[in-house]
Design brief:
- It is globular, with a radius of gyration of 29 Å.
- Helix 18 packs across helix 19.
- It is 51% helix and 7% strand.
- It is mainly alpha-helical and 615 residues long.
- The two termini are 40 Å apart.
C-alpha cells in the first residue's frame, strides 16, 4: 500500500499491527469506511485547522437552503414547493442522509454530472467540429454514471476508445482534439490527474518540475489513435477513431524505401524524374494525391520535379490526428526535421510499457498508469473536482492545476478522502454522498474573506449554476416544455449527430462555462440578458395571462400573501422574509394591475443572484 494510503488507515486507528517497531497496515483486513465515518473524519481535520487559525465558523444551513443546494449539486434540478414544505416538516434526524441517497438513486444524478463532464471535455476542444458530437459523449456518460461504473473504468474506456464517434461516446476526448497526440495527452493529464503538462510541450515547465521530454513521453502513448472520416458510397458519413499500427505505415515511408521502383513505374519520358502529370496520371493514385506536398518538402533544386535521390531524402511529414506509428519530439532548432523519436514513459512514476506495442496496448498501458491506486493524483483530481463543484472551491485551486509543487488546503483531509475513495473502488456515488454528508458542505453561505491567507471552508461559497442547472430551474419555475422543435441547419447548427439544436442546447451555447473556471471569474453578460428578454419561450412564460405557471398561481391564490409565498417557494425554494413580503405587497399596491405587478416580481426573482446561484 502506498504511503499516502497508509496514513488514512492509521488516522482511523484500525487494523494495525506493530512489527519490529514499524507500523504495518493490513488493508485486506480492514472494512471500507462508510460515507458517514469518512465525512466525520474530514470534518474533524478541517475543524482542527480552522480552530487553530481562530477562524469563525458559519452555522449549518437551514432545511430550505440545504435541500435546494443538494438537489442542484446531485440532481441538477431545484426541489418543488411541495418537497420543500414536506422536508421542513419532517422530524426524522436522518432526513438529510435519506434525501442525499434518494437524489443519487435518481436518473437526474447521471444527467447532472453527465453535462458537467461534457463541458469539461468539450469546452476545451481544439477540434471545433467536435462540439457537434458532444451529445453522444454526454449520453454515454449519463449511462455510465447512472450505472455507477467505477471512475477508473470510465476513464479507461475514454483513454482506449475506438469506433464510430456517433455510436461510441467514449471516443469523445480523442475526437475533441482531432486525435492529436500532444493535445490528447495534455487534456488527459489536466482532466484526470489535475496536472497541467501542456506548458512543457516546447520547453521545460516554467513553474513546475516537469521536463519537456516527460511531456512528450506522455504524448508517445497516443500517436497511433487516428480520427478519420467514414465514407459510405463516396459520401462522408461521420468520423471514427481507429488505431494505426506498425503495419499501417505512412505511405511516404514505402516510397522512400524503393524510390527506383516508383520512378520506373511512373516515369513515362524516362528522364529519371517525376513530374506532376506523371504522378497524377499513373496507376498509383495515392502518390498523385500527395505529390504536391512531396514537391513542397522534397524538391531541393526547385525544378518542379522529383528525382530518385530527392525521393530517398524526403522525411515523411507528420500528420497530427491521422495516426503516426511513432511520436517525435520536434527539434526547435530545426523544425523541418522529424525530431527525436520518443518512447512512452509515465511522468508520475517513470514506468514504461515497453516497445513493440500496438496502439491499444499503448493506450491501455496509459490507462493503467493513470488509474493505478499507487498514483495519488488520479484519486485526488476527481475528489478536488467534486469538492470544488459542490463547495465552490477545491483543496487545490485552480481545480485543474495540482501537482507536487502545489500545497493543498487541508492536506490530511484530502488524503483521507482519497484513501477512502480508492478503498471503495473509485465509487463516484459514494464520494458524492460523503462530501454531501460533511458539516463542511452543509454550512451556511457567508461572504468570502478578501484576505489571501484566509482558510477556506469555514462557510459555503455561493456557486453560480451551470447552464444546464439554470435551464432546469427556469423550466421548473416557468413550466415550459423542452419538447419544442429544434432549430434546423445541419452540421453547423446542430452538430454532426443529433440533428438541430434543442432549446436547451441553444440556451447552453449562451450560458455555458467551463466548470474548471474559478467562481470569481464567472460572470453574466449582456448577451445572456438579451437572450432571456427576447426569447419567446421565456418572455411568454413570465406572462400572467393564458395558462402560464404564473397565471395558474394567481388563479389558485386570491390572497396576495399566499401567492407571493408560493412564488418564492417555486423560484427560490424558501418562504419570503417579513421584509420581502412587505416590499412585494407595497409594490402590488403601487402598480395597480395585479398581473403586471406579479410579472415584474417573477422577473426580479429570476434575475436575482440568489436564483442564479446555489446558496
Amino acid at each position: 500500500m502506498a504511503p499516502w494510503l497508509s496514513r488514512f488507515w492509521v488516522s482511523l486507528s484500525v487494523g494495525t499491527t506493530c512489527l519490529t517497531g514499524t507500523l504495518m497496515v493490513h488493508a485486506a483486513e480492514i472494512s471500507s469506511p462508510t460515507a458517514a465515518e469518512v465525512a466525520q473524519q474530514v470534518d474533524r481535520l478541517i475543524l482542527t485547522e480552522l480552530e487553530a487559525a481562530q477562524t469563525p465558523l458559519a452555522g449549518l444551513a437551514n432545511d430550505e437552503d440545504f435541500l435546494r443546494r443538494v438537489s442542484f449539486d446531485i440532481a441538477g434540478v431545484p426541489p418543488t414547493p411541495q418537497q420543500v414544505t414536506l422536508f421542513g416538516l419532517n422530524p426524522d434526524p436522518r432526513k438529510r442522509t435519506e434525501v442525499i441517497q434518494q437524489l443519487l438513486a435518481s436518473d437526474n444524478y447521471g444527467k447532472n454530472w453527465g453535462s458537467y463532464w461534457r463541458d469539461v471535455v468539450y469546452l476545451s476542444a481544439t477540434n471545433m467540429r467536435a462540439r457537434g458530437a458532444s451529445t453522444v459523449f454526454e449520453e454515454w456518460m449519463v449511462d455510465q454514471l447512472n450505472q455507477n461504473r467505477p471512475w477508473d473504468a470510465i476513464v479507461t474506456d475514454i483513454l482506449t476508445a475506438t469506433g464510430n464517434i456517433g455510436e461510441n461516446g467514449a471516443t469523445g476526448l480523442v475526437f475533441a482534439h482531432g486525435g492529436e497526440a500532444e493535445e490528447v495527452a495534455a487534456e488527459a493529464s489536466r482532466i484526470f490527474l489535475g496536472i497541467q503538462m501542456q506548458c512543457a510541450n516546447c520547453h521545460d515547465h516554467p513553474t513546475d518540475i516537469w521536463k519537456r521530454e516527460q511531456f512528450h513521453e506522455l504524448a508517445a502513448y497516443f500517436p497511433r489513435a487516428s480520427v478519420r472520416p467514414i465514407q459510405v458510397d463516396g459520401m462522408q458519413r461521420g468520423f471514427e477513431v481507429v488505431s494505426v499500427n506498425q503495419t499501417q505505415r505512412n505511405p511516404v515511408e514505402a516510397f522512400r524505401e524503393n524510390p527506383e521502383r516508383i520512378v520506373s513505374m511512373l516515369d513515362r519520358n524516362r528522364d529519371r524524374k517525376l513530374s506532376k502529370s506523371e504522378a497524377e496520371g499513373g496507376p498509383m493514385g495515392q502518390f498523385g494525391r500527395i505529390f504536391p506536398r512531396l514537391i513542397e518538402i522534397g524538391d531541393t533544386n526547385k525544378d518542379g520535379m522529383l528525382s530518385v535521390e530527392e525521393l530517398r531524402k524526403i522525411e515523411p511529414p507528420m500528420m497530427p490526428g491521422r495516426g503516426n506509428t511513432e511520436h517525435y519530439m520536434a527539434d526547435l532548432k530545426d523544425p523541418s526535421s522529424k525530431g527525436t523519436l520518443i518512447q512512452p514513459k509515465f511522468f508520475v512514476d517513470e514506468s514504461q510499457p515497453g516497445k513493440g506495442l500496438s496502439d491499444l496496448e499503448r493506450r491501455q498501458a496509459a490507462a493503467k498508469a493513470f488509474t493505478d491506486p499507487e498514483n495519488p493524483w488520479f484519486a485526488k483530481a476527481i475528489i478536488n473536482r467534486v469538492w470544488n463543484e459542490m463547495l465552490g472551491q477545491g483543496f487545490y485551486m485552480p481545480v485543474d492545476d495540482m501537482g507536487p509543487t502545489r500545497s493543498p488546503a487541508y492536506p490530511e483531509a484530502m488524503d483521507t478522502l482519497a484513501a477512502a475513495f480508492v478503498a471503495h473502488h473509485y465509487n463516484l456515488k459514494w464520494l458524492i454522498e460523503t462530501v454531501a454528508s460533511t458539516q463542511t458542505y452543509q454550512r451556511q453561505v457567508r461572504p468570502q474573506s478578501v484576505s489571501t491567507d484566509a482558510l477556506p471552508f469555514a462557510s459555503q461559497t455561493p456557486t453560480r449554476l451551470r447552464s444546464d442547472q439554470l435551464y432546469s430551474a427556469l423550466s421548473t419555475v416557468l413550466g415550459f416544455s423542452e419538447s419544442a422543435q429544434p432549430a434546423r441547419g445541419g452540421m453547423m447548427a446542430g452538430g454532426i449527430y443529433g440533428g438541430g439544436r434543442s432549446p436547451r442546447a441553444q440556451f447552453n451555447q449562451i450560458f455555458t462555462f467551463d466548470p474548471s473556471t474559478p467562481q470569481e471569474d464567472i460572470t453574466g453578460n449582456v448577451q445572456q440578458a438579451l437572450f432571456l428578454m427576447n426569447t419567446p419561450a421565456f418572455r411568454n412564460a413570465v406572462s400572467a395571462t393564458g395558462n402560464s405557471r404564473l397565471s395558474q398561481i394567481l388563479r389558485k391564490y386570491s390572497d396576495d400573501q399566499d401567492a407571493i409565498s408560493e412564488l418564492y417557494l417555486l423560484a427560490l425554494a424558501r418562504e419570503p422574509s417579513d421584509r420581502e413580503l412587505q416590499v412585494c405587497q407595497k409594490y402590488l399596491g403601487e402598480v395597480g394591475s395585479r398581473g403586471e405587478a406579479y410579472e415584474d416580481l417573477l422577473w426580479s426573482l429570476l434575475n436575482s443572484s440568489e436564483f442564479l446561484s446555489k446558496r
